[in-house]
Amino acid sequence: MTISTIAAISTPQGSGGIGIVKISGPKAIDIAQSVFVRGFSPSGAPQNHAVEKEIHEFESRRLVYGHIVDSESRQVLDEVLLAVMRAPHSYTAEDVVEIQAHASPLILKSILSLLLKRGAVLAEPGEFTKRAFLNGRMDLTQAEAVIDMINARSSKAADMAFAHLSGGFAEIIKSLRSEILTLLSSIEAAIDFPDDVGEDIEIEKFVASIEEEMLPRISALISRHDDVNFLREGLKAVIVGGPNVGKSSLLNRLVNRERAIVTEFPGTTRDFIEDSFITRGIPIIVTDTAGIHESPDPVERVGIEKAWEYMSRADILLYTVDAGKPVSANDLSLFRQLSDKKIILVINKTDLPQEKILFLVPEEWRDIPKIEISALYNRGIDELKNFIANLAVDATPQMENAIVPNVRHKTALEKARSALSAVLSGSRAGVSFELISMDLHSVIDAFSEITGESIGADVLDEIFNRFCIGK
Ligand SMILES: Nc1nc2c(ncn2[C@@H]2O[C@H](COP(=O)(O)OP(=O)(O)O)[C@@H](O)[C@H]2O)c(=O)[nH]1
Ligand SMILES: [Mg+2]
C-alpha cells in the first residue's frame, strides 16, 4: 500500500498574524519544492533549478524565507517561512513541511489547493495525529491527550492532558502489563514443561501478588476516573426544584448571560438548557431543567422526564426553592428521591421583604449545605460558585499526579480487573494452568487496548474523528 501525502490548514479559521499549512508524507518535500521559491524576484523568473537542489538540502527544523508561487500561472500566492522536518524526527514521524503564511482564509485555501494540485490529498480530521500513533511516535493514550489538550477548558484539564501527553499513563499501564507478562510466562512454562516447572510455581505467592498488588492498583485507577474525570469534561451541576422558583434566572446568573427564558409563568422551561462556566479552574457544566411537578401539559411532562434523566447523571444538584413560599409537599417528596445525590440547597428570592419570607428549612434537610441568594439582584452568586468549587475540590482526592483514566480507559481497566479476578478465583479453586493462562491473556489484551497495541479500526476512527482537521 502506498502511503499518501496529506495536507491541511492547521491553524483555526479566521484572519490573524500567521496561518500554517502542513504537509506530511513521503512526497511532502517534493510537493513543497514544487511551490516554494527562494530568492524570488518579482521582475525575474523564479529560479526553480537552484531552488530544487536547495529544498532537499534544507536543514531539518529550520525556517527558510521564500514565496509560494504557482509555476503554471506564475502567480505569487504569499510570502512565507517554510520548515522541513525530516522523518522520523517530526510530529507524524514522516517527512513534514510546514508553511507559515499570512493567516487569511483566502490565502491559506489557495496554498492548500495548490498543494492538492501538486499531488497532496486533503487530510482527514486527526489524520496527522493518527499517523503519529500508527508510526509509533506516540501511543493511544498520548494521542487522546492531544485532543484533550486542544479542548482543555480549564487549567486542571490542561494539567491532566499534559500528564497523559508526556506518557505518564502509558507507563503505568505498560508496567502493569509487564508484571502480568511475568506471571503469564511462568504459567506457560509450567504448561509446556510440567515436569520441570510445575512444582516450582508457588501458587500462594502468585495469588498474593494479584490480590495485594495488581488488583488494588487497577481499582485505584478506576476510582481515580470516578472521582476526578469531571475535571476533564466538567462537573455536571443540575438546577432542580419546583416550578417558578427561579431556576432559569439562576442559570443565567451563573453563566452571566441571558441563556434561558425567564417569565413569571410556571412551566416556561420545558427542555433542558445547558451552558458552562469556570470557577477556580474547574469547568462546571450547568443544566437548567423543567420544574418538577405533576403537569397536565404533555410537552412539559417530557421535559420533566428529561429532568429526571439529567438529575441521575449529575455530580451536584442545585436544589432551588423560593424563599417566599413555604416548603411544599412536592419538594419534600422530590427531595426524598434525591437523597443519594450531592445537593446544595439554594434558597432564592431572599430579596423579598421580611414578612414575605415563608420558607423554613424542614427538619430532615438540616444537614444539607445551604446558601441564600437572589437571582434577580445577583446576590450570593459568587458565594454559590465558591460553594460548588469547594464541593468539587473536597471530592477530589489529593492528587500526587494529574493522571486520570478517561471513559475508554476505565472500560478496559474494568475488563482487566474482572479477568484478573477470574485468575484469582481460578487459582484458588485449583483450575488448570491453561484456563488461568487464558484469563491472563485477556488481562493483557485489555491493557493493550488502552495503549493501542491491539485496537479495532472502528475504535480508532471513533477516537480520531473527534479531532479537528489539521491536527
Ligand atoms: N423577587 C425575586 N424574583 C425572582 C428571583 N429569581 C427569579 N424571580 C422571578 O421568578 C419568576 C420565575 O423565574 P424563572 O427563573 O423563570 O423560574 P423557573 O421556572 O424556576 O425557571 C420570574 O418572574 C423571575 O423574575 C429572585 O431572586 N427574586
Ligand atoms: Mg425555567
Compressed to H and E, one letter per element, the order equals EEHEHEEEHEHHHHHHHEHEEHEHEEHHHH
User: Unreliable stretches, pLDDT < 50, 5 or more residues?
Assistant: none
Structurally, the number of domains stands at 3
Strand order of the largest sheet: 3-4-5-6-2-1-7
Radius of gyration: 30 Å
Strand-residue proportion: 15-25%
Q: Total strand count, please?
A: 13
Structural class computed from helices and strand pairing:
alpha/beta
Q: Which fold name is given in CATH as the topology of the largest domain?
A: Rossmann fold
Q: How does the major sheet shape up?
A: 7 strands, mixed
CATH architecture of the largest domain: 3-Layer(aba) Sandwich
Assembly status: single chain
Summarize the structure in words.
This protein is α/β, with parallel strands linked by helices and 471 residues long. The chain folds into 3 domains: 6-123, Gyrase A, domain 2; 145-228 and 404-464, Four Helix Bundle (Hemerythrin (Met), subunit A), CATH 1.20.120; 232-395, Rossmann fold (3-Layer(aba) Sandwich), CATH 3.40.50. Helices cover 46% and strands 17% of the residues. The protein is built from 17 helices and 13 strands. The protein has helices spanning 28-33, 48-57, 105-117, 127-134, 140-151, 155-165, 168-192, 194-197, 203-228, 230-233, 247-255, 298-313, 329-337, 381-395, 407-429, 433-451, 457-464; strands at residues 6-9, 16-24, 36-37, 63-70, 75-85, 96-103, 121-122, 235-241, 273-279, 282-288, 316-322, 343-348, 370-372. α9 packs antiparallel against α15. The longest helix is centred in the middle third of the chain and has 26 residues, at 203-228. The protein is flat and about 85 Å long. The mean pLDDT is 90. Bound molecules: guanosine-5'-diphosphate and magnesium ion (MG).
